[in-house]
Design goal:
Layout (H helix, E strand, L loop, with lengths): L8 H7 L2 E4 L1 H8 L10 H11 L3 E4 L3 H13 L11 H12 L3 E3 L5 H14 L3 H13 L2 E3 L3 H8 L2
Parallel strand pairs: 1-2, 1-4, 2-3
Helix pairs in contact: 6-7
């Protein structure tokens, strides 16, 4: 499915409530009761998608990354950070499966080459470049709290 043009992001959000979300963005949403207030704008974006039958696009690696975040949050955490119980994680995993998330297919050689080129050009990890490439390929907005990724994406 090809998305509408995103040159004017606010118009696009009204017409086509879809975006690519990276792990930092989705973790902020899923852990919203535990997160810093500056990350709470993700809630309105996801609520907009839910209210308008939109979709959140992710690459296949997202599922490993988000599960790793949840696993990490169940382990001992230093400096007063919060710790999740296994029950918390099961509740979050249930919430996650209820979201309208479209997982892109496993990238073929051509897509992997584009991801590699993006990673090299913008000095990103291959992981971060996969979100950038997915947003670019579907012509969607990228949502992330990763400053380096967003700086690279906004410079495209």
């Amino acid at each position: 499915m090809k998305a509408a043009n995103t040159e004017n992001t606010s118009d696009n959000k009204k017409r086509f409530p879809c975006f690519v979300a990276d792990t930092s963005f989705m973790a902020a949403y899923l852990l919203n009761g535990f997160c810093d207030d500056k990350l709470k704008d993700c809630i309105k974006d996801i609520e907009y998608v839910l209210q308008n039958n939109g979709q959140i696009y992710v690459p296949p690696l997202f599922w490993y990354e988000i599960q790793n975040v949840l696993l990490y949050k169940t382990r001992s955490i230093k400096d007063g950070q919060f710790r999740l119980s296994n029950t918390d994680v099961m509740d979050i995993m249930y919430d996650l499966q209820c979201l309208p998330i479209y997982t892109d297919t496993v990238p073929d050689a051509e897509i992997r080459q584009r991801i590699y080129s993006i990673a090299q050009e913008h000095k990103l990890s291959f992981y971060d470049a996969s979100y950038f490439e997915l947003a670019h390929r579907y012509n969607l907005v990228l949502k992330s709290y990763d400053e380096e990724l967003m700086q690279a994406y906004n410079s495209k």
